[in-house]
């Protein structure tokens, strides 16, 4: 199989864009789908990628991962596009909202965007994934309170509460709005790891152990390459965009967590392209190193419950 397709959610900017660029250069015969919520940003990214990589097989298909309807529409468009066999999915799109957000399906915004939409996307695309395919979900070392990232520790509880804006707000109301948004973000990144663990086990049970599903930590990618701070207040946003050079000198951060979209985009592309024999499923990659995720992230009960709850709310059957 020389021709393969890779889907990258949020591939129009930051880490997703850099990953797409590296894969497009390394594999000029492969097809890359930039799955992005904004048509204009998506088209611009596709044209820029074609120009920068000389790979002509780059397409955009719209998706808003916070909307279950949009995820379903994306999958239909993808099927109708009749592209080369689907080899891999990079579930990269992510957001941190500093205000209270309820999605059109009635879910809390961060949980729906970072976790639930990708859960549905991957479930719907799984039957299309070719032999020895690869799924990488972008998590974050902020899920692990032992790593000094300046982000608050996750506060995990039943998904029915995490996904309900009102209940989640009640649970976190003692915190400032900014801290609440940080907790929701780190909790969603922990949920991603639970999903990766459960999915890798289910794939083995279903006889699809040729598919590798892992999570990936890109580290702290401050600087103009990442737009993750778009909703931060102007002071923090300015620091994020223009003062990245200071951060390595601050003792609040573990040095090894500080990276850039260039470095992490290279690591993520390499992970996608590494042969299946060289990687294990259900693992956590910190850049180019496979390491254990936080102790809290290994919890079979939570993993099973999150799986069951997610199937139910997305109207999918157990498999
Ligand atoms: N930056 C960091 O320090 C850092 C650290 C650890 C983990 N991460 C993770 O790395 C991933 C990439 O982040 P980044 O730093 O590259 O930030 P970024 O530049 O903001 O990229 C995020 C991408 O996700 C897209 N996105 C957001 N909400 C979406 C939705 N509802 N539907 C579809 N696409 C959506 C954005 O689209 P728009 O352009 O339309 O907004 C953008 O393309 C995220 O999962 C983030 O959580 C980042």
UniProtKB/TrEMBL annotation:
UniProt key word Oxidoreductase: yes
GO molecular function (one): oxidoreductase activity
Keyword line: Oxidoreductase
Pfam family, one: adh_short
SUPFAM superfamilies: NAD(P)-binding Rossmann-fold domains
Lineage: superkingdom: Bacteria
Family: Belongs to the short-chain dehydrogenases/reductases (SDR) family.
Matching PANTHER family: RETINOL DEHYDROGENASE (PTHR24320), SHORT-CHAIN DEHYDROGENASE_REDUCTASE FAMILY PROTEIN (PTHR24320:SF152)
Name under which the protein is recorded: Dehydrogenase
The organism of origin for this protein: Lacticaseibacillus saniviri JCM 17471 = DSM 24301
Organism placement in taxonomy: Bacteria, Bacillati, Bacillota, Bacilli, Lactobacillales
């Amino acid at each position: 199989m020389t021709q393969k397709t890779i889907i990258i959610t949020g591939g129009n900017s930051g880490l997703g864009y850099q990953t797409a660029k590296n894969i497009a250069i390394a594999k000029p015969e492969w097809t890359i789908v930039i799955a992005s919520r904004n048509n204009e940003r998506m088209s611009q990214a596709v044209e820029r990628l074609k120009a920068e990589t000389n790979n002509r097989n780059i397409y955009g298909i719209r998706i808003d991962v916070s909307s279950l309807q949009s995820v379903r529409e994306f999958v239909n468009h993808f099927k109708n596009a009749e592209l080369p066999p689907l080899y891999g999915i990079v579930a990269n799109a992510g957001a941190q909202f500093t205000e209270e957000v309820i999605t059109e399906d009635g879910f809390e915004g961060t949980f729906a965007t970072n976790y639930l939409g990708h859960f549905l996307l991957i479930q719907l695309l799984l039957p299309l994934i070719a032999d020895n395919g690869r799924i990488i979900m972008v998590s974050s070392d902020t899920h692990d309170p032992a790593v000094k990232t300046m982000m608050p520790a996750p506060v995990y509880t039943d998904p029915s509460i995490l996904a309900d804006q009102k209940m989640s707000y009640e649970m976190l109301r003692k915190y400032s709005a900014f801290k609440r948004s940080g907790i929701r973000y780190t909790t969603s990144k922990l949920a991603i790891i639970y999903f990766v663990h459960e999915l890798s086990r289910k794939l083995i049970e279903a006889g699809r152990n040729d598919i590798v599903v892992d999570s990936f930590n890109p580290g702290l990618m401050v600087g103009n390459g990442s737009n993750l701070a778009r909703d931060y207040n102007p002071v923090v946003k300015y620091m994020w965009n223009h003062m990245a050079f200071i951060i390595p000198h601050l003792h609040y951060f573990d040095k090894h967590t500080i990276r850039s979209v260039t470095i992490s985009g290279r690591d993520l592309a390499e992970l996608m392209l590494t042969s299946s024999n060289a990687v294990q499923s259900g693992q956590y990659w910190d850049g180019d190193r496979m390491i254990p995720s936080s102790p809290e992230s290994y919890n079979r009960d939570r993993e099973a419950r999150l799986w069951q709850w997610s199937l139910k709310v997305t109207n999918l059957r157990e498999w």
